[in-house]
Design brief:
Length: 428
């Protein structure tokens, strides 16, 4: 047994050492990109664009008139290529999970069910081998979300490049997350009886209500006699400085979750939202944004259209609901642009689909003033692709910048591809 543990430790050590890449240095030279088709994320497309990056910001974006360019700048001729805002993964375990089958590499949940004080920021692993595979496909910002229990914790937005978690943090303590109890009664043979399912749901709802009541009362006090870290972690939610993201899928859960939050003066964000297409009028009236999860999935009900998961985005778009698209997990985030591409194939325009993984996500997370689109004055977080970013057949991300710093787009998978291409390409 000792030998097995030694081998496992050695394997994990090699895994992490080989995974490390040098993060990009802060931008110290002006970068000028010319000739590309720029997709701003706001629905606009600029042909033959010029984009100037200075001091980590976009100082200019417009149509290139062919005028001479300064010789001391880094010039990038992107003729025939496409420029996009950096993509934003709005809900992921990236950096908290390394090897799904090895428990020692999982750090996304704590013991207990009510842990709003647990902060994902301090557990984020910048040396993860997974992160470069995600970054190389254009995901440059990500909301790192803890999981497990009823209130799993507080999430933060990270840049997918950095020496450590302090270095990579983009916006800290963005949201507190709440997993709404399951309210749909299942008749599956392995599930408890209907009465037991209802009792469990009602018990969880009572626990949530009690916790919120006590947390609100605590935060209304000027000087509590005894400090309670869990209650203190809810202060921003009650003050409106933090988001409350509630994971709910079933129609009854969505309505109950929104009404619950509103009873405390909170406008929540609904995550998951499988049945959101059934309550568009309600969500619109309440001003509730949506993080639409798992667009590549089966329908929730046997009678639903098999293509419904692909069409939900179009339904929400037509209803005028602010929404973005997400995928669960960590390594899966590299497929985020293709999830948006599927939404484009089922009703959204390409620019609307791009917004679901860029500007819309930034708006929902409260950081659209600085990122999410290609606009003058915003952070120079963007990428250059030789093909359509939303189409897996042609998407090749060639260059990416985070706050003006050119990041490394290599990863272990690319290295293995080069290694074995050479091996099997050699003549005997």
């Amino acid at each position: 047994m000792k030998k097995i543990y030694t081998l496992l430790f050695s394997a994990l050590t090699c895994y992490y050492v080989n995974a490390q890449q040098v993060p990009a240095a802060k931008q110290n030279q002006t970068v000028i990109i010319t000739g590309a088709t720029a997709h701003t994320g706001k629905g606009d497309v600029v042909e033959n664009a010029i984009i100037i990056l200075e001091n980590g910001k976009i100082s200019r974006i417009g149509t290139y008139d062919g005028s001479s360019l300064p010789s001391d700048a880094e010039l990038i001729d992107a003729k025939g290529k496409h420029v996009y805002p950096g993509l934003i993964a709005p809900s992921t375990r990236l950096g908290l999970e390394e090897i799904e089958a090895v428990r020692a590499t999982l750090d996304y949940r704590e013991a207990g069910s009510m842990n709003p004080n647990v902060r994902s920021i301090i557990s984020y692993n910048t040396d993860s081998r997974i992160t470069p595979t995600v970054r190389s496909n254009g995901v440059l910002l990500a909301l790192i979300v803890p999981e497990g229990g009823i209130l799993p914790g507080t999430s933060s937005v990270f840049m997918t490049d950095g020496w450590n978690w302090e270095d990579a943090a983009y916006k800290t303590d963005v949201a507190v997350h709440l997993n709404w109890p399951r309210m749909r009664i299942s008749s599956a043979s392995w599930m408890p009886s209907a009465d037991e399912q209802r009792n469990r749901s009602e018990q969880s709802l009572r626990e949530i209500r009690t916790f919120f009541d006590e947390a609100k009362a605590y935060n209304d006090l000027l000087r509590p006699d005894t400090r309670n870290l869990r209650f203190e972690a809810m202060k921003g939610v009650f003050k409106g400085t933090q988001k409350l993201v509630i994971r709910a899928n079933y129609i009854k859960e969505i309505i109950a979750a929104v009404q619950f939050a509103k009873s405390y003066g909170i406008t929540p964000v609904i995550e998951g939202a499988g049945d959101s297409y059934l309550v568009t009028d309600f969500l619109k009236e309440q001003g509730v944004p949506v993080i639409l999860s798992q667009p590549h999935a089966l329908p929730n009900r046997d009678e639903e259209d098999v293509a419904l998961p692909y069409k939900r985005a179009k339904i929400l778009q037509e209803a005028g609901i602010l929404f973005c698209i997400s995928i669960d997990g960590s390594w899966q985030q590299r497929n985020l642009p293709f999830m948006a591409g599927t939404a484009a194939a089922y009703g959204l325009s390409k620019e609307e689909a791009l917004a679901t993984i860029s500007l819309n996500a930034a708006k929902i997370l409260g950081m659209d003033a600085s990122t999410g689109s290609l606009e003058q004055g915003k952070d120079a977080t963007l990428l250059i692709s030789s093909g359509d970013l939303l189409d897996m057949r042609s998407s090749i991300v060639e260059t990416a910048f985070i706050n003006g710093a050119k990041v490394d787009l290599d990863n272990k998978q690319k290295a293995l591809y080069r290694k074995y291409s050479e091996k099997y390409g050699q003549k005997e």
